TrEMBL record:
UniProt-annotated location(s): Membrane
Organism from which the protein derives: Mugilogobius chulae (yellowstripe goby)
Protein's name according to its UniProt entry: Translocating chain-associated membrane protein
Gene Ontology CC entries for this record: endoplasmic reticulum membrane
Domain of life: Eukaryota
Biological processes, Gene Ontology terms: protein insertion into ER membrane; SRP-dependent cotranslational protein targeting to membrane, translocation
Keywords: Membrane, Protein transport, Translocation, Transmembrane, Transmembrane helix, Transport
Family label: Belongs to the TRAM family.
Span of domain TLC: 114-323
Membrane topology: Multi-pass membrane protein
Alphabetical list of Pfam families matching this protein: TRAM_LAG1_CLN8
InterPro entries with a match to the protein in the record: TLC-dom, Translocation_assoc_membrane
Length: 371
């Protein structure tokens, strides 16, 4: 990990050297970009990496106030790259100064250690993104007017907070790809993590490019809340295996979030956008309101939700089987077959011996014994 002192330094530019010092290397690259602001020649290029681009001043008719709005463009790639570097640095800081210290106290196995690190990083990100997304939704009053999701499409203008939110979201999920190498993720865990990383990148980038940032933001906030609850519950579970109540609440909210996502998606692509005035396809205007694009987006969302429900059902069945097996093993250990004590065994043995001896006596011997 970055920022960690090692007794034995591996060869320069070897795999182990890059893994141990990747955060330091990334920090140097970010500092070079920041130093570019100090010189007039390089300042215009450095600003392209650091600040949000494509601002447009627009005067609102109602308030007669000038407001700075933003749209997207190719320069956003540079901004995403810079905040990808920041995400790598923050990832290393959380790992080094928080998660590693907790891991040393818990003494987890290698499998649980890897899952604990994954849940710790994602829980911090989901918490930050959920709070940030809620603040944007509260300021824009998205929840009070559902038709705001499609009214006035295409939504080519964004406020600063919305655009910066999407820049940071794309940067974070792109940074998760090299982290698979930096964190030495196990080979069996790589496909699972690649699936959800790619899904996040495709869906968030699609909402950003297709000017569906309002719908994307409304769908991300409840989804992040559900994922935050799951990873927080898993962290508590690793600290104490008896703490499993959070998974029950997560299962309930997971199903509600899937239904909410499908409802808002069908409402937007099936009823809202087809009835708007701006119909057609235009790259210059940022208008993608045609049947092909709408059905493709709706199909992608529905397939993703179906895949998530399938994984959820398999996970619940696996947990149910493990719980039933544990209950069966507990019953066996708590109520074993009763064994006779030594006294009872002696009494029973003597009684049995008498009975057996009586049974072996002849009739004459029995009469003599009776008399």
């Amino acid at each position: 990990m970055g920022f960690r002192k090692k007794n034995k330094s591996p060869p320069v530019l070897s795999h182990e050297f890059v893994i141990q010092n990747h955060a330091d290397m990334v920090s140097c690259l970010a500092m070079i970009i920041l130093l570019g602001l100090m010189f007039e020649v390089t300042a215009k290029f450095a600003i392209m990496f650091i600040t949000v681009q494509y601002n447009v001043t627009q005067v609102l008719d109602e308030k007669q106030e000038a407001v700075n709005l933003y749209h997207y463009g190719p320069k956003d790639v540079a901004t995403v790259f810079f905040y990808l570097l920041i995400a790598v640095i923050l990832h290393a800081l959380i790992q080094e100064y928080i998660l590693d210290k907790i891991n040393r106290r818990l003494h987890l196995s290698k499998t649980k250690h890897s899952k604990f690190n994954e849940s710790g990083q994602l829980a911090a990100f989901y918490l930050f993104s959920f709070i940030w997304g809620c603040s944007i939704l509260t300021a824009e009053d998205f929840a009070t007017n559902p038709t705001f999701l499609w009214e006035g499409y295409p939504h080519t203008r964004m406020v600063f907070q919305v655009k910066f939110f999407y820049i940071c979201q794309i940067a974070y999920w792109l940074h998760a790809l090299p982290e698979l190498y930096f964190q030495k993720v196990r080979k069996e865990d790589i496909p699972r993590q690649l699936y959800y990383i790619c899904l996040y990148v495709v869906h968030i980038t699609g909402a950003y490019v297709l000017n569906l940032h309002r719908l994307g933001l409304v769908l991300l906030v409840p989804h992040y809340l559900v994922e935050l609850l799951f990873h927080a519950s898993r962290l508590f579970y690793f600290s104490d295996e008896n703490k499993q109540k959070g998974f029950t609440l997560w299962a309930l909210l997971f199903v509600i979030a899937r239904l909410l996502t499908l409802t808002l998606s069908v409402l937007t692509f099936g009823f809202g956008l087809p009835r708007t005035e701006n119909q057609g396809f235009s790259l210059a205007d940022g208008n993608f309101n045609v049947l092909t694009v709408r059905m493709t987006c709706l199909a992608a969302i529905c397939l993703t939700q179906a895949w998530m429900m399938w994984k959820f059902i398999n996970f619940q069945l696996k947990k149910w089987r493990e719980h039933s097996q544990n209950q069966a093993s507990k019953k066996k250990t708590v109520s074993p077959k009763s064994k006779p004590s030594k006294r009872e065994h002696a009494r029973g043995g003597s009684a049995n011996g008498v009975v057996k001896s009586d049974e072996k006596m002849s009739p004459r011997a029995r009469k003599a014994k009776a008399s």
